[in-house]
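Contributing new complexes? Match this layout with biotin.
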Amino acid sequence: PAIEYELEAPFSVEYHDSVANTNELARERAVDGATNLAVLADEQTGGRGRLEREWSSPPGGVWVSLVTRPAIAPSQAPLYTLAAAVSATRVAREAGVDARIKWPNDVVIPEGEDGDYRKLAGVLTEMEGETDRIEWLVVGIGINANVDADVLPEEATSVREEAGDVDRRRFVQRLIEEFDRLRGTVDEIVPAWRELTLTLGQRVRVDRPAGEVVGEAVNVTESGALVVETEDGRETVSAGDCEHLRPV
Ligand code: BTN
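Output block (do not edit by hand):
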């Protein structure tokens, strides 16, 4: 019931018990002119991750898509993805979970000493617009909140598993507040991301369509691309090109 999610948030909330996919619904709302709208579901039956991957979305998770119409160029959109990852990481940490960000926008829990991790949350951003201006942006955030880890993919974990259940209404409220604050202070997004990441300083392998890049992750650019120091010099990999990143 929609009333259950009347939040004191800077976004209005459209709540569903079960939908195919909140990003798709948010997209429809965006096309109809909506803004500052959060489409939220208890369960998704057709959840999608980056690169058309399946995104397991059982009841109890936080599956939410934020519709905004920021006055930015499409090249700046990855910043909003980073902002969503920062927001999700912060609220997960408030819930007592040792969440960190794996570039570009995975929220993970480190496991062991060898740079391994389990995935807790992810972000999928979609947009429409001209080359110089965005019409609308849909930022989809999926957080494995009150879900048993054994119904999730092997490499995933949940807040329930790591720290116990959260009050989802408060959790979503805080998530939206953090995102709203960051989008108002765009200069703070990359510094906030840097503080929470485990990727910088790691030796990594990034798979991308143009081939793999291996080296030390040394920086993130203003638009959220990763700078890797390879044997042949520095390579910059944009978030959209990253098919896979793993510590090596
Ligand atoms: C990823 O890590 O690949 C991104 C996962 C994004 C999942 C969220 S859940 C809400 C929205 N609806 C979807 O189907 N995907 C995004």
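Reviewers usually confirm one structural detail per submission. For this one: Residues 203-247 form a domain with the SH3 type barrels. fold (CATH 2.30.30.100).
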